[in-house]
Amino acid sequence: MRKPTYGITPEGAPSIGLTALSALVFALLGLTLPALLFLLLCFFCCNFFRDPERVVPVAPDLAVCPADGKVIKITSMPDPFTGESRLCVCIFMNVFNVHVNRSPIEGQVEAIAYHPGKFINASFDKASTDNERCAYDLSDRDGKRWSMVQIAGLVARRIVCRVDVGDGLKKGERFGMIKFGSRVDVYLPDGYEPKVHVGQKVLAGQTVLAAKR
């Protein structure tokens, strides 16, 4: 497992460094407007790539949200691995949300499937099948299977995966991120019901997503 640092996620270092250096160079050249522009971009990148700590619920029969953002849909959809219809919770992240993703459960990564694709607005229904995405098949301590999909959005151009097949994940543990606007879908196993509602704002690793009936 590739461990991230805290405060600012490692994937943000190139963007933050480039914009900060550009602001400094333009300032030294006496070009005020470009210097201010790149300084603002640097602040934006620092905000986008922030990686705050979260308080993870410890109850074993609770799953947590894998992403910050807003719940945009709760509906039955075909599972990306089995094709069977399962209840899915979709969380949309805008560019101002934290984009570090966390595991909804304690379990093991059984399979990872990356699919290249388009960059349609992640809030649209067809984004789940047409966009660039990375799907994860997870098994929890009871052997139940959870599917989770990172979906690139209109602006996003890179999905970051920090885990490999066979890795164990703690509930709320960081496993990757999506750069610049995106969505995460979670397919619930039988016996679990959602504890969020459409329109609700949620926090990765902290807001309860689902609970055992």
Helices and strands in order, then pairings?
Layout (H helix, E strand, L loop, with lengths): L6 E2 L4 H16 L3 H17 L1 E2 L10 E3 L4 E10 L6 E9 L6 E3 L4 E9 L11 H4 L2 E8 L4 E8 L6 E3 L6 E2 L4 E5 L3 E6 L4 E3 L6 E2 L5 E5 L1
Antiparallel strand pairs: 1-2, 3-16, 4-5, 4-15, 5-13, 6-12, 7-8, 7-11, 8-9, 9-13, 10-12, 14-16
Give a verbal description of the structure:
This protein folds into two domains: 7-51; 62-212, Distorted Sandwich (Glucose Permease (Domain IIA)), CATH 2.70.70. Helices cover 17% and strands 38% of the residues. The chain is built from three helices and 16 strands. The protein has helices at residues 13-28, 32-48, 127-130, and strands at residues 7-8, 50-51, 62-64, 69-78, 85-93, 100-102, 107-115, 133-140, 145-152, 159-161, 168-169, 174-178, 182-187, 192-194, 201-202, 208-212. An eight-stranded antiparallel β-sheet has the order 11-7-8-9-13-5-4-15. Strands 3-16-14 form a three-stranded antiparallel β-sheet, with no helix packed on it. Strands 6-12-10 form a three-stranded antiparallel β-sheet, with no helix packed on it. It starts with 6 loop residues before the first strand and ends with a strand.
